[in-house]
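Re: the request from the purification team.
They wanted to know what the chain is likely to look like in 3D before they choose a buffer screen. I agreed to run a prediction and write the result into the notebook, where they can find it.
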Amino acid sequence: MLAWIIGGLITGTAKALTGAQAQWVGCGPYETQRVYYANHSSHLDFILLWAALPPKLRRRTRPVAAADYWWDGGFKEFLIRRVFNGVAVERNGHAAGAHPLQPLFDALDEGASLIIFPEGTRGSGEELLPFKSGIYHLAKDRPNVELVPVWMENCYRVMPKGSFLPVPLLCSVRFGEPTRLAVEERKPAFLERLKSALEGLRA
């Protein structure tokens, strides 16, 4: 109950601070299993994307978050584990005794959708960083899952790197056209295609 209440407060606060409304320009808010991949410039990013989903989708969508930052045993861990039902990923690419993406595969196999940031770290908000290969392996090993680009505008101004308190500014969350890995598509071409699709959603 406490996690549910906190989740509602965070969602309401995020929407109030940013005025963000979901813009479904390339697809609709359907219950299809998806990996929502987005630009990353702020710790607010996954909260705003998660809040932009309809409640029915929100309940089955799990953000992928860096274990070294969120799983610290404190309030952050309570938020990511209990409120957002996040999936931990090791940013250094090493998970003891397992494939580093195994938690993501497990979540998909359980029927969840995911929120991921293929840049792997926060950027400036102006240009996308090169995509890491994780999304390619997800697409290759779970080919039935749709990949949906999501561009979030202005998040880096609301809560820039190093800040602790958000600044009220208008943001937008724009959902693009779903895609999948094409037959015999090589990793570099695939990553560049996904990056271009995400950039194409910029206002």
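For the purification team: The CA atoms of residues 6 and 163 lie 21 Å apart.
Please add any questions underneath this entry.
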